[in-house]
Known about the structure:
Elements: E1 4-9, H1 13-23, E2 29-35, H2 38-47, E3 52-55, H3 64-74, E4 79-84, H4 89-98, E5 102-105, H5 110-121, E6 126-127, H6 136-146, H7 155-165, H8 170-177, H9 181-195, H10 200-210, H11 212-221
Parallel strand pairs: 1-2, 1-3, 3-4, 4-5, 5-6
Helix pairs in contact: 2-3, 7-9, 8-9
Amino acid sequence: xxxxxxxxxxxxxxxxxxxxxxxxxxxxxxxxxxxxxxxxxxxxxxxxxxxxxxxxxxxxxxxxxxxxxxxxxxxxxxxxxxxxxxxxxxxxxxxxxxxxxxxxxxxxxxxxxxxxxxxxxxxxxxxxxxxxxxxxxxxxxxxxxxxxxxxxxxxxxxxxxxxxxxxxxxxxxxxxxxxxxxxxxxxxxxxxxxxxxxxxxxxxxxxxxxxxxxxxxxxxxx
Length: 222
């Protein structure tokens, strides 16, 4: 199995060491570089190839926001995941606008970071579930403006989107609904097109607005 090459960027050496130790146990991931700030991250990317950069936002010298912009200018296809303690709307929006595909809180479960890394490597977006409420209002308003009176997804398409948003893979969704994986992919694509959803963040925002994510939380607490 080819492992995804990861560059860790954080000014705290203990943080980098801890993440590296945890990532070591993932069969498809490998930390192949480390940097203590944005400037060093730029040097690393100039001289080595990475699939994903996991970067803190607040660091001495060049911080994560500026570094993200510079890295995307240097290598537009490079996947960047922000890992930070900042949960304020300005930070989330700023980093996503700069080109990052993922935004994960350090205080969230480790599984979220791993998921963000894998999704970013595949070109998909991920925002920490606890922060989706910060960007839902703008998303709903923009969607209504862009798709007034647009086509309505079928009940089956909504069912597929709900299960995908709740964390089920296409294969798991196919098993749950007794359908083929190709049929699930078609329902997902058609549903997202009708709703004007572009990527995972849009889907998660819509799911939060619909209350689908609360269903998952309620099942976990019962």
